């Protein structure tokens, strides 16, 4: 890190020494029913775990001693998450251990679920511990909201509290942070994520790995327009916090069956790696499940929000096996050992390989962080005052969107190419 960058980061930390008590910035209310798990159809090894050879990876590391913060919809206590602690609640009064949406619990299970004699389900880093910070919920809204309670897209989760949650996770001693949420805007819009960027800079200065979902294509939202396959072509959709690479490790989704890019994964030059995001098995209060109950039937678990925790868990495995590595070196190892990509807007350098990440001998001359994907700068324009939304990046929650204090801008001219 250059001296000027170090000085700027020290000043940033001095101005913002830590996150305040976790609480919503304004009064909220629950307006929708909580999510319900579908009947479990889980048998055998989860396809994603099999694809990544987690059994092989666990011969080298199980994530012992590593703390992973899950900034999400909360995590419900579960016998298979014995180290779970609450880190705060920015949605309602609580400690982060309430999950009306079930999304955060599913994510936490992918990262850290302990094995059970009853089945073959196990998390990527089963001896790591989870810190749960509830930052969003599709079942809540601000009391001042004028949204129709029946409208798809109502929910709660401002970018301001995402920034606060990131700082809180750092203050609580997280070694790895997982964020499975995405806000999308048309290219050329004002993004309004400076507070999130500042919080990520603090996380980097405190040596924390931050893994985020790339986002999903979703009709009826600003994530509806796909970006080009080629990373050098101008994008039409900007996603945050994924776009803030290299401060984050942005994760796309692949098919669990063969590792090819999932059709719904949002492309972008900021995508660094990918992980399984279909045929997902997650942890619910009743045990491992493959779907949630939706208004029109069961909805299979799928999305980049379930790909990201595979990578967060891999980071936990590495931090446990190689405690002397910096966060940048951990990320470098994940990217350098991924395979099947190269420079791809859907999967970045390719699908993660936990076994290779734990065993590869990287060149001693490699500069830490040299493989990280840096997203091109995006133009900004003036603000016209309308609200944007933040999506939980899991297709099982496709009807659940979370309000974000983003404002769109009028498109002015052509989006410049990434190399400008």
In words, what does this structure look like?
- The active site is at residues 72, 103, 305.
- The chain crosses the membrane at residues 386-406.
- This is Type VII secretion-associated serine protease.
- The protein is 22% helix and 21% strand.
- It is globular, with a radius of gyration of 19 Å.
- The strands form 6 sheets. A 7-stranded parallel β-sheet has the order 3-4-2-6-8-10-11, with helices on both faces.
- It is α/β, with parallel strands linked by helices and 420 residues long.
- The chain is built from 9 helices and 19 strands.
- The chain has one domain (28-358): 3-Layer(aba) Sandwich (Rossmann fold).
- The protein has helices spanning 3-15, 47-51, 54-57, 103-112, 159-171, 194-205, 304-321, 327-336, 354-359; strands spanning 28-30, 67-72, 85-89, 129-134, 140-142, 176-179, 181-186, 209-213, 237-240, 249-254, 271-276, 282-284, 287-289, 291-294, 297-300, 339-344, 348-351, 388-392, 401-404.
- α7 (304-321) packs across α8.
């Amino acid at each position: 890190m250059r001296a000027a960058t170090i000085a700027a980061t020290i000043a940033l930390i001095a101005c913002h020494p830590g996150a305040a008590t976790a609480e919503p910035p304004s009064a909220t209310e629950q307006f929708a029913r909580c999510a319900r798990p579908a009947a479990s159809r889980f048998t055998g090894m989860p396809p994603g775990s099999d694809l990544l050879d987690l059994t092989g990876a666990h011969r080298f590391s199980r994530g012992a001693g590593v703390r992973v913060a899950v900034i999400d919809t909360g995590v419900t206590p579960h016998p298979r998450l014995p180290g779970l602690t609450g880190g705060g609640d920015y949605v309602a009064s609580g400690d982060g251990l309430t999950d009306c949406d079930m999304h955060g619990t599913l994510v936490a299970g992918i990262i850290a679920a302990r094995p059970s004699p009853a089945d073959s389900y196990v998390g990527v880093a089963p001896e790591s511990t989870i810190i749960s910070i509830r930052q969003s919920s599709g079942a809540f809204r601000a009391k001042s909201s004028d949204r129709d309670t029946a409208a798809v897209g109502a929910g709660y989760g401002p970018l301001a509290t995402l920034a606060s949650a990131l700082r809180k996770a750092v203050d609580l001693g997280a070694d790895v942070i997982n964020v499975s949420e995405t806000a999308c805007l048309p290219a050329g819009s004002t993004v309004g994520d400076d507070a999130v960027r500042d919080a990520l800079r603090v996380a980097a200065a405190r040596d924390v790995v931050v893994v985020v979902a790339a986002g999903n294509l979703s009709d009826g939202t600003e994530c509806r327009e796909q970006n080009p396959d080629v990373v050098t072509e101008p994008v039409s959709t900007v996603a945050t916090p994924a776009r803030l690479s290299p401060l984050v490790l942005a994760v796309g989704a692949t098919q669990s069956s063969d590792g090819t890019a999932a059709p719904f994964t949002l492309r972008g030059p900021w995508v660094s790696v990918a992980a399984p995001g279909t045929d997902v098995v997650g942890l619910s209060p009743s045990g491992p499940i493959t779907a949630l109950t939706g208004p029109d039937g069961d909805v299979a678990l799928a999305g980049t929000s379930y790909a990201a925790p595979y990578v967060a868990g891999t980071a936990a495995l590495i931090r446990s096996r190689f405690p002397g590595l910096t966060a940048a070196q951990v990320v470098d190892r994940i990217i350098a050992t991924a395979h099947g990509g190269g420079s791809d807007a859907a999967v970045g350098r390719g699908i993660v390989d936990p076994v290779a990440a734990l065993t590869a001998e990287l060149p001693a001359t490699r500069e830490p962080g040299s493989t990280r994907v840096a997203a091109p700068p995006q133009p900004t324009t003036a603000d016209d005052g309308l609200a944007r939304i933040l999506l939980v990046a899991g297709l099982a929650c496709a009807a659940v969107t979370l309000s974000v204090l983003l404002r769109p801008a009028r498109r002015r001219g052509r989006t410049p190419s990434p190399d400008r």
